[in-house]
Fold:
Amino acid sequence: MRYLQYLLARTILAVCLLSGASQAWAGPLYSVSIDTATLGSGPAYLGLYFMGLADAAPATATVEHLTGALTGVASATGAVTGAAPGPLVFGNANGGSDWFQAVTLGGVLSFDVSFALEAGDVGTTFGWALFDDTGYLGGDGDLGTISLQPGAGPGAVYLLANQSALSHVTVVPEPSTVALMLLAGLGMAWTARRRRS
Structure:
């Protein structure tokens, strides 16, 4: 009987660890903040895009918690659904999608983005930029990009390129991943305690 309890505890632990690992492969959550204080004040535009080549693996990008001095009505091209503060769901079919929002400079703009990617060999890129009527702000183009490379490993490989000091990106594990890893840790502690007694 004791052996069966031990085997059951080990099995539950293995399932929790594998579940946590599979969630990690599904892709992290990226928290993006853009500090526009050094750009002065006045109107500008925040642009978000999700672009794939013609044979890119089907994918979606979900933007949530969009905050900052947003003004007016946003405009979108391609497969974008939702409205600020989110969720905004971008598709990469037919070349991708763009979303533009008028903003007032001088504060911090922020959002979270996560991805779902199907099997395939060709990647997709998510990017963000600030611009006004004369050109890009804070750099010569995008403030940052995240490239999804499905053929490079298990699940997808996410390559982050932060091209501007205005933009800061933090990788946040998904809550379900944290919960599963916590459960696995509790299972290991319980097993160790049972073994000592």
